């Protein structure tokens, strides 16, 4: 028998809603190439890095690279101050798993 005094009440309002921080994320499917100076390197989600770039098009706002495994692996040694170029080359199907993944070329100076 359930005790009514212990019932969980849904009393949430819009003020309780949690939002993800808004960041300017590089849309690699729309803009196939990005060139910039690394201004920020921090801990990202899923063991990746959060990398913010200053580009010619970004004015005063950093553009962040997506945290994709195929991209994070190539950016593992990135440091603040590096000049980088990332080119999106499309999707490929993994012969091993059969899943699709994104393919990038990464250049670092």
Walkthrough of the structure:
The chain is mainly β and 109 residues long. The protein has one domain: OB fold (Dihydrolipoamide Acetyltransferase, E2P) (Beta Barrel). Helix content is 6%, strand content 36%. The protein is built from one helix and five strands; from the N terminus they run E-E-E-H-E-E. It has one helix at residues 69-74, and strands at residues 33-43, 49-54, 63-64, 83-93, 100-108. Strands 3-2-1-4-5 form a five-stranded antiparallel β-sheet.
Write a brief caption for the model.
By secondary structure, this protein is mostly beta strands.
Task: Kindly list the characteristics that best describe this protein.
109 residues, OB fold (Dihydrolipoamide Acetyltransferase, E2P), mainly beta, single chain
Count of individual domains: 1
Question: Low-confidence runs (pLDDT<50, min 5 residues)?
Answer: none
Approximately how much helix is present in the residues?
A: under 10%
Oligomer: single chain
Question: Which shape, going by the Cα principal axes?
Answer: extended
Distance between the termini: 68 Å
- Strand element count: 5
Helical run tally: 1
Largest sheet: 5 strands, antiparallel
- By CATH reckoning, the class would read Mainly Beta
What's the rounded overall pLDDT mean? Answer: 88
How would the blueprint of this fold be written?
Layout: E1 33-43, E2 49-54, E3 63-64, H1 69-74, E4 83-93, E5 100-108
Antiparallel strand pairs: 1-2, 1-4, 2-3, 4-5
